[in-house]
Write a structure and sequence with these properties.
Nucleotidyltransferase, domain 5, kinase activity (chains A, B), 3 domains, disordered N terminus, kinase (chains A, B), Arc Repressor Mutant, subunit A, alpha/beta, Sugar kinase of the NBD/HSP70 family, may contain an N-terminal HTH domain (chains A, B), homodimer, 13 helices, five-stranded mixed β-sheet, globular, transferase (chains A, B)
Amino acid sequence: MAAVWQCQAVTSTSTGAVRQGSLRQLNLAVVLRRIATADRPPSRAEIAADTGLTRATVSAVVDDLIAGRLVAEAEPAPRTGAGRPARGLLLAGDGPAGLGLEVNVDYLAACVVDLTGAVRHHVVRRADLRPVSPADALDRLARLAAEARAAAVREGLTLAGATLAVPGLVGADGLVRLAPNLGWRDVAVPALLAGHPLVEPVDGIPPLVVENEANLAALGELHAGPPGSASFLHVSGEIGIGAGIVLDGVLYRGVRGWSGEIGHIPVHPTGRPCRCGGQGCLERYAGQEAILTAAGLAGADLPADTAAARLADLAAAGDPATLTALADAGTALGVAVAGVVNLLDLDTVVLGGGYAPLARWLRPPVDAELSRRVLTAAWSPVTVRPAALGARSAAVGGAASVVRRIVDRPAGWLARSG
Amino acid sequence: MAAVWQCQAVTSTSTGAVRQGSLRQLNLAVVLRRIATADRPPSRAEIAADTGLTRATVSAVVDDLIAGRLVAEAEPAPRTGAGRPARGLLLAGDGPAGLGLEVNVDYLAACVVDLTGAVRHHVVRRADLRPVSPADALDRLARLAAEARAAAVREGLTLAGATLAVPGLVGADGLVRLAPNLGWRDVAVPALLAGHPLVEPVDGIPPLVVENEANLAALGELHAGPPGSASFLHVSGEIGIGAGIVLDGVLYRGVRGWSGEIGHIPVHPTGRPCRCGGQGCLERYAGQEAILTAAGLAGADLPADTAAARLADLAAAGDPATLTALADAGTALGVAVAGVVNLLDLDTVVLGGGYAPLARWLRPPVDAELSRRVLTAAWSPVTVRPAALGARSAAVGGAASVVRRIVDRPAGWLARSG
């Protein structure tokens, strides 16, 4: 016997009285989730058996989901016996989609992910945004978003929500408190983007969510990475170093949404001064600038992903300075990650962003520090692996998070399209 | 309008069919939780209004809860108008209770917490357990537990479950994988305690849970600390240093239950060698032995809490070596905690265990490192405070966790007593 928990929304009024929320909303969500998490397209009868709903209810709910372009029927299964074969149900690839956006130090990105999780559009535009004002950077981003929207419309998709990744600390209401490497402080992103409608408004789906880039990169990895990794630390190595912590499939955001600043874990407390005002922060030993400097490429002013590719080329060619630089960075990273694993007891560490193409050289020193410093390493090793999506993970993670909201609460979307 | 979620257990059989779980179980839990979380004893009518259940249902459920000694009626309120005053309902102080046990390096402890959260019995017995075999240590603990049980029975309480705190890594099924400062490795605690029935068996309440001491100390703080601190880092400074992480009122246990090893965060990666095989671990700079050595008390072989009291006396008297030792320990602790706060974005750090009586001297250097090293410190300071319970927190936290299980699932207890 397996116990499951079914949750039911109940709306409580200010007078303290309670009324049952719409049963239809609950049934829509239960049936859609069953379809979304299936190994193979389930039939209406299978959904009824698994959820405890009657077959008539399931049929009515499925009709609504198909009419709303959330669900489609699979090709009929081959006849295996008497009667008409049952048609399997799957998520629709021509309904709502999520828009993922990213502003980073040296590029802008926009991507579209449909309900099935497929990336339908993805554009990255190089641009050094450090000398550009936030308003101008967001104007450029809005143009990229408009292109993505047009591409989505051409494919029959409707953008139902957008998520913007920013390499910084994001407060409530999308205020970017601090993005040190972009030079942003207290930038009210939603206000600056207000003149650019990004998506169709859908009840229950926020039109724009602004989120830390490393957090969204971790969600991108959850979306695209190997199945079964529901708890992991995702470390994005760029000019700054950010981490996303996923626990049981859910992003851990911290008390104020500011978790993941792994770049400012002190690894040599009396060591190099850091921009943040601290001293000996990981970023000063394993950030991209530190690696480039140690490899003799200081001042080359390469875009972040070009820099990673260049370092990978040099390391593959056996350049001694680059190999030493990567070994030292990996050791510093391993020291910080060992502390994290001792504290949080995670069994998987994903090297993402600019670290992904360098994982071949970073992994051995990281592994060495973990073996040496993690109390439980002897009987329960930690897996260190490169990210599935690399530097493009944040935009995909943002778009996927929109899609997940629609699957969790389909009623808002159906009210719009119905 | 405030939205709440009501959860309902549904039991799924292996055939895939689903039947509705007992509505009575759900109603018992909903009503008991309403009573447990109330600011003042609510009446049956208030519970009906708040939960959406009918008054007849609430009355029947409350009758069951009173008969099962989970709920009691408060003294009648003074008459304020016409009619009989409604009687408020509160948790019963004469029904089930939790047994909290602790084995530590130099003491054993047992305590009893009743359903209202009151500590009804608490005994600590000094003993250096390092030279003692695990079996002998657990035999002594069982005698302490039997005394606690007799005391509970004399007060009309029934022990419904026990939780044992151990300063080490605990695996599934209560196997202590490693408790370095006790010298335990792969100790099967439940098997060794099998000859000593600790509690009355109750359906749904595990008779014995073995858990890391620092984790339970954090739960003790959640239970006894100021209201409103639902997310915090609790650091227990003993011979080892352990941390408990509470997120939104729930203990974070890690992927394998081994979280919280803050003592092995590297603070000086090329520094002092550590027992764990690593180098420069926090424990070597801020653990009790390091502080005693720096204060000129090395080899004094004081029991852990005596040592903390002795250090506090010396510091209060202005002993320069002790003040320097505490300042240096606080700085090392601040470096490690700054990394944790950067990573997890917590706003409260509780100094527990042996750190509690030393908090007056440890806090300033910890605060200084946090101000300097936490990226968000400028606009969102972190509160550092001593634990409410100090070194006795783990046993209380363990007993309180039993009580919480009963409140969450009262049906098992009622089936036993009914």
